[in-house]
Every structure is written in structure tokens, then in C-alpha cells.
Amino acid sequence: MWIAARDISSHEFAVANGCNVMVTPLMKGDEEVEDLAHKFDTAVENNPGVPRPDLMVLRHTHVHPADEPEGWRRPAEGIQKFYRTFDAWFGNKTTPKNGFLEPSPAERFADRPEFTPESLHQTAMIGTPEEVIERLRHYEALGVTEFSLWSDNSLTHEEKKRSLELFIEHVVPAFQEQPVAAAR
Fold it and tell me: By the 8 A CB rule, do 121 and 135 touch?
């Protein structure tokens, strides 16, 4: 069982009841992952008789080839559109057409620098395989045991597929245990 947690009381409830914890920093940076991991660790410390559950980070993710230095821009713009669409749904001021809702205008976020593509490039898990591996190693050092790749953005199927292929081909192997050679 997994429980999504942000507030310390949610972490406490999950750990006390033997549930795994899933956190998402949304559009915030790795300092938010560090804060959420600290809340998780505090909950674990406050429940000494309970086995340590798993901690998962859910993060908007896109992997692009190292030879595409601007490969971050379209995914960051897609994530911005996701948040603008979420804002439109949350605002509940327009009517969906055929199940879709137009995103809130970008100007609505003009005074919110965390929603710029440049900021989302830094805070979302967007980068080359090497950059993604480096950040995931940091998460691993924080005690994160699971990573959930969130590709909900406005990219095409082919773009998402290529990102996933790069993740599988280059990032995943960095976290797989190497087989131990048989003893002679």
C-alpha cells in the first residue's frame, strides 16, 4: 500500500500503519525532495517498532540525448502547459469541450517564476542520461528507494517514447545490481 504524503502527519500515518510513502515535489526543486525525505525520516524515527517502508519520488521526467543541448525546452514547455491546464481545471471557470479544457493563459503565471520553462528545466527531472543519473544518485543518498517517471506533458507519443527508451537504455542500468561472479 502506498500513501501520498506531503505534511508530516501524512508521513506519520503512513509509516505507523506500515505503508510505503510516495512524495512529489511538483514544480519545486530538489530542496523540496530533501524536505520531504526529512519528513519521512522523522516519521520513521518516531515509529521505531515499524519496519522502514519504501520512499518513492514521483517527478515530471524527460530524458534527451546529450547532443541536443536544447532538448529540455519542449518538455519544460509541456510541463508548464500541464500546470496551466491543471490551473484551468482547478479554477472551474470554463467548460470543457469534448473532454478537454484550454490551459490558463501563460500571462496568469507571469509573477510565478517557478512556472517558467527555464525554472521547470531545473526543477523537473529533465536532462541528459548523465544529468538524470546524477540527480537520482542524490535521491538515493537521501533514502529514496523508488522513482516514478511522470511523463504527463504535451509532447508527442514519439517524443515520450524516445525519452523512455533513453531512460531504460542509459539510466536504469546505472541502478541495477551487477551480478556477482561465481566463486571458483
Answer: no
Three-state secondary structure of 109-166: HCCCHHHCHHHHHHHCEEECHHHHHHHHHHHHHCCCCEEEEECCCCCCHHHHHHHHHH
Burial class (CB in 10 A: 0-12, 13-18, 19+), 37: buried
In this prediction, the residues of the chain whose per-residue pLDDT falls under 50 are none
Length of the chain: 184
Question: Are the beta carbons of 136 and 175 closer than 8 angstroms?
Answer: yes
- Tally the C-alpha atoms within 13 A of residue 139's C-alpha that lie toward its C-beta: 27
Predicted confidence at residue 179, as pLDDT, reads 61
pTM over 0.90: no
DSSP state of 2: E
pLDDT tens for 152-165 read 778 999 999 999 99
110: cell is 507571469
